[in-house]
Amino acid sequence: MHLVANGYKVLAGSLNNFEVDFVALKHDEKKYFQVTYLMTDEKTTLRKTGNLLKIKDNYQKYIISMDELPASNIEGIIQMNFRDFLTADGIL
Question: 24-36 pLDDT, tens per residue?
Fold first, then answer.
């Protein structure tokens, strides 16, 4: 709903045979989002980053979770807290 409220068309499902939770489109801009409750184990991290890393374009990719950690970067994928995502300037 936050993406739609910021003017994005939101698609869910798969993209190029890779599951992606949300693909946000606005004009000629595209952003990919994976969402998970917590990134507490390696299995979750691999599942959430794996499909994003398979997408070979230069659009921004995000993992949004409830982890209470500062925003970080996993091989070019921005991982951030859900509350920070809702209030961050420059993300949308």
Answer: 999 999 999 999 9
